[in-house]
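User: Please fill in residues for this 463-position structure.
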């Protein structure tokens, strides 16, 4: 049923409840995808299967939280934490909330490039200030662009110049992972406005046309799914076509390589065809875009085959996200975007309890999602973002000095090394007790093919 048909036939209370469920589902679904995706991020599909042979994950006792395959990449966090992907989405989300108000007579202002730039600078230096967490996962592109002269006042120019200096070839997924909240922010705005604001927010750091287009399409898909405008694969394909047409007319002088796009989002593409764990290309933006589109197609097909069964709907998010992250590669970012689309399609109520109630800072996160729903008129209640200190650029906290941050990094690194060392000793002891045949298990605590990837800064061009 389309949004227009639903709007005409459904009681207003049911319409609001459905849109509310889908809006919160998109936000929480994305954070959950990110959180669960960390289990296999930077692993190959083969190593992921070896590390998690049951292919099941839980964040709640008594069975959980499921322990990580412990290496220096995962040792800096505990199970249940989201990563930089959700942090960056929150920067954009909080930027909107800060100027939003239920008392306003008109629509709340959209985020600006300058405000996002300011928030990115704070995050790079001090982490996510509302929660006082560390900036784990800072990537080469974002770190270079944000640190460049002029970024604070002309971020899009700086980002474009960096793209030019690097050969106009880099198209990582660091802007796609943050822009999905715009599809919700633009719920009552036009699709064209959604394309435009998402493209602008990508250009703050990511100027490649593939990145810009992916953000425009991704945000518009979230909007369309929440509104009920995408209920069949044909509806999805129409959004893709409209996004491509818009980009051709308004997106800039660069043209899209349509065959390349089709190889990632076409109706005959499957997860295997995306080769998500191909080491040189794991952070490619079209892989992440394709992962989300493919999972949405799979959800549509499974729901159609089941006749819309409630039991199928209740299992689908967990099954599909698990299937995705077991492909390895940039699993957290792929699942972050895919989780936004699936959460929008299935709704918050269909998200697995043992994930959403085990996510660290989950209650805080849902509170911010509810604030957006009040601003959008999906639930009753008042909200004035200017009175919510956590939406400020500084997160309502005192700044952390460089010396303090260095101290935090040192403690974090020492704790991470200790975790890995203790796990290696325990594994070695278990191997000795079990005999020579268990010796191979020691490798399960190494760095895998991701080598010396650091949680303090990403390599391989990611982000």
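Assistant: Residues filled in for all 463 positions:
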């Amino acid at each position: 049923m389309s949004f227009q048909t639903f709007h005409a036939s459904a009681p207003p209370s049911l319409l609001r409840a459905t849109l509310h469920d889908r809006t919160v589902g998109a936000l929480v679904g994305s954070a959950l995808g990110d959180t669960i995706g960390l289990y296999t991020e930077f692993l190959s599909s083969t190593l992921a299967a070896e590390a998690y042979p049951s292919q099941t994950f839980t964040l709640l006792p008594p069975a959980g939280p499921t322990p990580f395959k412990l290496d220096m990449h995962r040792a800096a966090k505990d199970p249940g934490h989201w990563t930089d992907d959700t942090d960056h989405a929150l920067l954009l989300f909080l930027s909107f909330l800060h100027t939003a108000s239920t008392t306003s007579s008109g629509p709340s202002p959209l985020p600006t490039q300058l405000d996002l730039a300011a928030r990115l600078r704070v995050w790079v230096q001090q982490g996510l200030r509302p929660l006082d967490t560390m900036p784990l996962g800072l990537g080469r592109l974002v770190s270079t662009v944000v640190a460049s002269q002029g970024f604070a006042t002309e971020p899009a120019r700086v980002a474009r110049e960096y793209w030019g200096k690097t050969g106009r070839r880099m198209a990582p997924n660091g802007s796609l992972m943050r822009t999905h909240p715009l599809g919700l922010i633009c719920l009552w705005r036009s699709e064209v406005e959604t394309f435009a604001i998402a493209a602008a927010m990508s250009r703050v750091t990511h100027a490649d046309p593939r990145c810009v287009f992916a953000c425009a399409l991704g945000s518009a898909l979230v909007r369309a799914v929440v509104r009920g405008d995408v209920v069949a694969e044909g509806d999805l394909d129409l959004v893709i076509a409209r996004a491509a047409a818009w980009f051709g007319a308004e997106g800039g002088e660069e043209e899209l390589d349509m065959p390349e796009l089709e190889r990632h989002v076409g109706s005959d593409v499957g997860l295997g065809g995306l080769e998500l764990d191909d080491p040189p290309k794991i952070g490619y933006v079209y892989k992440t875009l394709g992962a989300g589109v493919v999972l949405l197609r799979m959800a549509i097909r499974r729901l159609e085959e089941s006749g819309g069964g409630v039991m199928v709907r209740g299992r689908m998010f967990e099954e599909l996200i698990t299937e995705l992250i077991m492909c390895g590669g940039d699993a957290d970012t792929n699942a972050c975007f895919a989780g936004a689309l699936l959460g929008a399609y299935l709704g918050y109520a269909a998200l697995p309890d043992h994930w959403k109630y085990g996510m660290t800072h989950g209650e805080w996160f849902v509170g911010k999602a509810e604030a957006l729903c009040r601003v959008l008129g999906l639930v009753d209640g008042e909200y004035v973002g200017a009175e919510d200190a956590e939406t400020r650029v500084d997160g309502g906290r005192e700044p952390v000095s460089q010396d303090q941050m260095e101290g935090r990094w040192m403690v974090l690194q020492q704790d991470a090394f200790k975790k890995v060392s203790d796990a290696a000793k325990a594994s070695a002891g278990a191997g000795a007790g079990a005999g020579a045949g268990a010796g191979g298990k020691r490798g399960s605590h190494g760095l895998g093919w991701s080598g010396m990837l650091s949680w303090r800064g990403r390599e391989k061009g990611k982000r």
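For context: Residues 305 and 403 are 58 Å apart (CA to CA).
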